Amino acid sequence: MRFEPTPLAGLVVLDTTPVADERGHFARTFCTGEFAAAGLPTTFAQCNLSFNARAGTLRGLHWQAEPHPEGKLVRCTRGAVFDVAVDIRPASATFRRWFGLELSAATGRALYIPPGFAHGFQVLQDTSEVFYMMTESYQPVLARGAAWDDPSFGIAWPLAAPILSPRDAALPRFTAP
Of 9, 22, 113, 137, which residue is the least packed, with the fewest Cβ within 10 Å? Predict the structure, then answer.
C-alpha cells in the first residue's frame, strides 16, 4: 500500500499495489503494521456498507461529535463516487477547507478521514457501493451534519441537482463546535 498525505492534516489517500497474473489481481487493503507505520489507526469498531442505486445520490455531510468522534476508512467497492472530507476542527489551519477525490472499484483507492472531519459523497455511477471502516461505533445521539451546499465550504460537487434523503436535505449550515 501507498499512503499519500493530502493538504489537510491527517487526511490520507491510500493506493493499493495490486499483484496481477492471468487470473486477475490481489491487493492488500488493510495491514495493521503498515497502518501503524503510517500513523493511522489499527483498530476499527464498526464496518458499514452503503448501496446507492442512482448516480447523483449525495450522502452527507456527516460526522460524530465528542466524546466519540469517528475516523473513517472509506473505499468504493462497486461503481464510483466523488468522496469529500471537510476539516471542521476550529483550531486547525485548514478549518472549513475541503478535499475531494474520485473513489472507484476500478482504482481501489481509499481515503482515511480522521476525527474532526465532516464526510460526504456523491454517486457518479448507478449501483455504486461504499464500504466504511469506523474507529468508533455509531451513536445516534452524537450524529451531526451540515448542508451539502453550505457556502462556507464551497464544495464543487461534480453533478448538479443531487438526490438527497429528507434528513440530508434538512441539514443546517455548519456552525463550529
Answer: 22
Per CATH, the number for 45-169 is 2.60.120.10
What is the reported pTM?
A: 0.95
Per-run averaged pLDDT (10 residues), the chain, 177 residues: 97 95 94 97 98 98 97 98 98 98 97 98 98 97 98 97 98 91
The residue with cell 468508533 is 136
Helix, strand, coil percentages for the chain (3-state, nearest 5): 5, 40, 50
Contacts of residue 19, defined as CB under 8 A and 6 or more positions apart, other chains included, come to: 25, 26, 27
Contact between 75 and 81 under an 8 Å Cβ cutoff? The reply is no
d(CA 87, CA 97): 6
Closest to 125 measured CA to CA, from 40, 51, 23: 51
Phi, psi angle pair for 36, to nearest 5°: -60, -45
* Euclidean distance between CA atoms 30 and 28, whole angstroms: 6
| Cβ partners under 8 Å of residue 160, min gap 6 | none
**Residue 118 near residue 92 (C-beta atoms within 8 A):** no
Contact 82, 122 (CB under 8 A): yes
pLDDT at 156: 98
User: Cell for 27?
Assistant: 491487493
Catalytic residues: 62, 132
Q: What is the pLDDT of residue 176?
A: 83
